[in-house]
C-alpha cells in the first residue's frame, strides 16, 4: 500500500511573522517590500486572503482592497531557519521527505502506516509537533493519498489547517467536483488550451481520446493529462539524498524603479554576477552558458546568451560576458528587472591558466571567498560596487526562476 | 507599526533546559520584562552566528539579536504602544 503525505504550510511567511509578533495576529498583513514600493506581495495572511489579497499583487492593489493592511518586510533568514526545522522534524517520521518548496514537502509513509486510521493519526501528530516546534500560530494542511498528485490535491482542498484523505471511497466524487486547474502541474495556460478543445472538466478530459490530446500537447503530456484525469501518478517521492544534480544557478533583481540608467543596471548586474559566481564556487561548479537578461516595464524581455569555450565561476568574468554589449546597447524601454542565469554546469577544476594575470585572478578568488565567509557576503567586493547598497536576499528563493522568452540585445 | 531600532542593549537571560531564555532588558531608561518568547531563529553572518529572539513584553513586541562572535545584544525592532 502506497501512502503519500503532502504537507503545505498555511500562509507560511505571513504566519511566521504573526507568530513572531503577536501584535500582527488577527490582522490583515502582507509580506512585501515597503508600502509604496514596487516589490510584489510574496505572502498574505489568512485574514488578508479573505479580502482577496493574493501573492503576486502589487502593494497598491492590496491597499485598495484593504486600506488598513499592514506591510511587513520579508525576513528570509527567519523563514529558511524554520523551514529547516520543519524538514528536520518531518525526517523523524520517514527518511523519504521531498522538499517541494520552502513551505511544502512530500512524505512517503509507505511501510509506516497500514491503513487510513494510522495515516490520520500520524498526520495529526505531525500537525501537533509543528505547532509545538514552530509556534501556535504556524499551522499546516496535510493531504493523504496513494500518490503525490492526489496528496497535493487533498492538502489544497483541506486548506487552511486541514487534514484530508483521498482514498478509493471518495476519489471519484472529488475528481468529478474539482476544476482542472486544481491539479498541480495544470496551470491556466494549459486549461485555456483544453477549453479551446471543449474540455472544461475532468469528465470531458477522460472522454477525449489520447490521440486528440497528443496533437495539441505532444505524446508525453497527453498521456500525463489522461492519467491526471483518473488520479494516476507514479512519480516517486525524491528524498534529498536522491536529488538530481543542480542544473543551473541564477539571480534576478527587480529595481526600485524603472530606469534607463546604464550605470545602475550594470551595478546591479555585477552584484548579481558576484552572487551567482559565489554560489557556483560554493557548490564547486563552473558554468559554460551565461544568459544575461533584462525585463522592461511592460514585462517584455531582452537577453544575451553566450556559451563559452571554458567553464567559469568568477563573478567578474560572468559580468564581462554581458558588460560590453550591454554598455553599447541602446535601451528601447525602461528596465524593471535585471537577471543572470548560468547553466551547462560542470565540476570546477583547478587547472592552471596559461596567462599570469589569469593565474593571479584564480588564486585570488579563494582568498576573497574566505574573507566573505568570515565577515559576511560582499565584505570585499569589486570597487564598482562600493557605492551600491547590498541587494536584498530573495525570499524563498530555493528555485530561481529564469525568463526563457528572451530576445537578443541586438 | 514595526520600528527599526538597532541599538545596543543589555539583556538578562536564563540558561534553562539547554535553551537561552531572555528574562528582561533595559532600553531608554526603562526595564522591560519578557512575558513570552514567541520565536527564536538564527542566522550566520560570515563567521558570526546571530540568534534572534522575538519576544513579547506585555502587549509590546521586540526583536532582540545576540551576536555570538562579540557577545553583544542588539534591540533590532520594536512594535509598542
**Count of individual beta strands of chain A:** 12
Q: Largest interface here, residues on each chain?
A: A-B, 19 and 19 residues
Number of domains of chain B: 1
Number of strands of chain B: 7
First-to-last CA distance of chain B: 9 Å
Unreliably modeled segments of chain A: 394-410
CATH fold-level name of the largest domain in chain A = Alpha-Beta Plaits
In the CATH hierarchy, the architecture of the largest domain in chain A is 2-Layer Sandwich
Strand order in space, largest sheet of chain B: 3-2-1-7-6-5-4
**Biggest pleated-sheet summary of chain B:** 7 strands, antiparallel
Radius of gyration of chain B: 12 Å
Number of domains of chain A: 3
Strand-residue proportion of chain A? 15-25%
Shape of chain A: globular
Give the integer mean of the pLDDT values of chain B. Answer: 93
Broad CATH class of the largest domain in chain A: Alpha Beta
Alpha-carbon distance between the termini of chain A? 57 Å
The shape of chain B is globular
Quaternary structure: heterodimer
The side-by-side strand order for the widest beta sheet of chain A comes to 5-6-1-7-8
Folded structure, characterized:
The complex is a heterodimer of chains A (410) and B (81). Chain A has 410 residues and is an alpha+beta fold. Chain A folds into three domains: 1-164, Reverse transcriptase/Diguanylate cyclase domain (Alpha-Beta Plaits); 178-239, 5' to 3' exonuclease, C-terminal subdomain (DNA polymerase, domain 1), CATH 1.10.150; 249-385, DNA polymerase, Y-family, little finger domain (Dna Ligase, domain 1, 2-Layer Sandwich), CATH 3.30.1490.100. Chain A is 40% helix and 20% strand. Chain A has helices at residues 12-20, 46-50, 59-65, 76-90, 116-134, 148-158, 171-177, 188-196, 202-207, 210-229, 262-282, 315-328, 356-375; strands at 4-9, 29-31, 43-44, 70-72, 97-101, 104-108, 140-145, 163-165, 249-259, 285-296, 301-312, 335-347. In chain A, the strands form three sheets. Chain A has a five-stranded mixed β-sheet. Chain A has a four-stranded antiparallel β-sheet with strand order 9-12-10-11, with helices on one face. In chain A, a hairpin with a 4-residue loop joins strand 10 and strand 11 (301-312). The longest helix of chain A has 21 residues, at 262-282. The N and C termini of chain A lie far apart (57 Å). Residues 394-410 of chain A have low confidence and may be disordered. Chain B is mostly beta strands and 81 residues long. Chain B has one domain (3-79). Chain B has strands at residues 3-16, 19-27, 30-33, 36-45, 48-57, 60-67, 72-79. A seven-stranded antiparallel β-sheet of chain B has the order 3-2-1-7-6-5-4, with no helix packed on it. In chain B, strand 2 (19-27) and strand 3 form a beta hairpin.
Amino acid at each position: 500500500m502506497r501512502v503519500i503525505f503532502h504537507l503545505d504550510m498555511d500562509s507560511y511567511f505571513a504566519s511566521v511573522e504573526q507568530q513572531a509578533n503577536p501584535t500582527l495576529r488577527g490582522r490583515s498583513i502582507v509580506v512585501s517590500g515597503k508600502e509604496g514600493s514596487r516589490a510584489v506581495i510574496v505572502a498574505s495572511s489568512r485574514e488578508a486572503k479573505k479580502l482577496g489579497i493574493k501573492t503576486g499583487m502589487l502593494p497598491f492593489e492590496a491597499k485598495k482592497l484593504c486600506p488598513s493592511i499592514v506591510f511587513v518586510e520579508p525576513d528570509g533568514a527567519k523563514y529558511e531557519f524554520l523551514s529547516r526545522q520543519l524538514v528536520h522534524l518531518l525526517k523523524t517520521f520517514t527518511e523519504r521527505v521531498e522538499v517541494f518548496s520552502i513551505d511544502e514537502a512530500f512524505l512517503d509513509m509507505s511501510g509506516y502506516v497500514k491503513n487510513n486510521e494510522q495515516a490520520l493519526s500520524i498526520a495529526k501528530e505531525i500537525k501537533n509537533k509543528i505547532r509545538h516546534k514552530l509556534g501556535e500560530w504556524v499551522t499546516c494542511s496535510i493531504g493523504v493519498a496513494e500518490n503525490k498528485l492526489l496528496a497535493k490535491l487533498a492538502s489544497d482542498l483541506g486548506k487552511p489547517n486541514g487534514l484530508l484523505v483521498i482514498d478509493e471511497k471518495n476519489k471519484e466524487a472529488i475528481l468529478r467536483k474539482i476544476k482542472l486547474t486544481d491539479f498541480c502541474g495544470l496551470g491556466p495556460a494549459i486549461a485555456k488550451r483544453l477549453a479551446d478543445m471543449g474540455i472544461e472538466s475532468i469528465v470531458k478530459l477522460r472522454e477525449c481520446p489520447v490521440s486528440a490530446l497528443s496533437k495539441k500537447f505532444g505524446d508525453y503530456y497527453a498521456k500525463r493529462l489522461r492519467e491526471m484525469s483518473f488520479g494516476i501518478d507514479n512519480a516517486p517521492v525524491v528524498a534529498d539524498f536522491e536529488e538530481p544534480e543542480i542544473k543551473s544557478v541564477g539571480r534576478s533583481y527587480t529595481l526600485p524603479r524603472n530606469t534607463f540608467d546604464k550605470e545602475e543596471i550594470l551595478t546591479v548586474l555585477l552584484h548579481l554576477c558576484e552572487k551567482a559566481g559565489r554560489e557556483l564556487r560554493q557548490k564547486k561548479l563552473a558554468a559554460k552558458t551565461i544568459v544575461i537578461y533584462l525585463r522592461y516595464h511592460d514585462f517584455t524581455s531582452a537577453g544575451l546568451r553566450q556559451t563559452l569555450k571554458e567553464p567559469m565561476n568568477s563573478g567578474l568574468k560572468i559580468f564581462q560576458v554581458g558588460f560590453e554589449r550591454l554598455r553599447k546597447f541602446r535601451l528601447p524601454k525602461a528596465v524593471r528587472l535585471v537577471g543572470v542565469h548560468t547553466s551547462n554546469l560542470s565540476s570546477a577544476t583547478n587547472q592552471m591558466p596559461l596567462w599570469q594575470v589569469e593565474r593571479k585572478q584564480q588564486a585570488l578568488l579563494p582568498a576573497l571567498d574566505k574573507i566573505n565567509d568570515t565577515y559576511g557576503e560582499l565584505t570585499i567586493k569589486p570597487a564598482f560596487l562600493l557605492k551600491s547598497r547590498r541587494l536584498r536576499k530573495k525570499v524563498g528563493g530555493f528555485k530561481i526562476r529564469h525568463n526563457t522568452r528572451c530576445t537578443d540585445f541586438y | 507599526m514595526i520600528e527599526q531600532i538597532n541599538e545596543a542593549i543589555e539583556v538578562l537571560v536564563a540558561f534553562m533546559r539547554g535553551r537561552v531564555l531572555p528574562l528582561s532588558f533595559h532600553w531608554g531608561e526603562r526595564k522591560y520584562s519578557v512575558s513570552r518568547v514567541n520565536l527564536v531563529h538564527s542566522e550566520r553572518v560570515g563567521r558570526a552566528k546571530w540568534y534572534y529572539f522575538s519576544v513579547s513584553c506585555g502587549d509590546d513586541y521586540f526583536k532582540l539579536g545576540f551576536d555570538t562572535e562579540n557577545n553583544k545584544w542588539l534591540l533590532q525592532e520594536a512594535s509598542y504602544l
